[in-house]
Fold:
Amino acid sequence: MTKRIINFGGIMLIALLMTVSANVFAQRGQGNGNGNGQGNGNGQGNGYNSNRMLNLPDLTDDQKTKIEDLHIKNRKEMTQTLNLLHEKEARLQTLETADNVDNTAVNKTIDEITTLRNKKFKSRSAHRQAIRSLLTEKQRIIFDSRPPRGERGKGNRQGKRGRGNRGGNYGGPCFQR
Structure:
């Protein structure tokens, strides 16, 4: 009887340890919204960061002013596009989860999202080239060695490349749109 109790206690202890260890491994890495998740993610979390651009070596005051002006102009233009993109993505989710899915409306919304993303990427590239044109050769080498904006904000969750929530307050899985 005593041997049976000891065996049962041992089995329960092993089961408890397995449950606890499974929960520990199931936890997501915590980040702080700027791509600094568990592991080696160091990306800028909020997309374009003018301070990062201004950390280029030997920037003149004129270069700093022009870069900041370009940034402000770009943000004004992109705000409306990004807002519309987010609205379309929310609309797509609504359409796709309806009881009776209208595939024509879904496909039309997908096309609109694709057009807006295309516009966003082209604007991003033009903005990057405008900044590049203001830099010296040495500054361009450093600027070009940095990942494009779309690659920033990536963190590392449990050894897998993940993306920090570029909007901030990363506390779990996030999916980039």
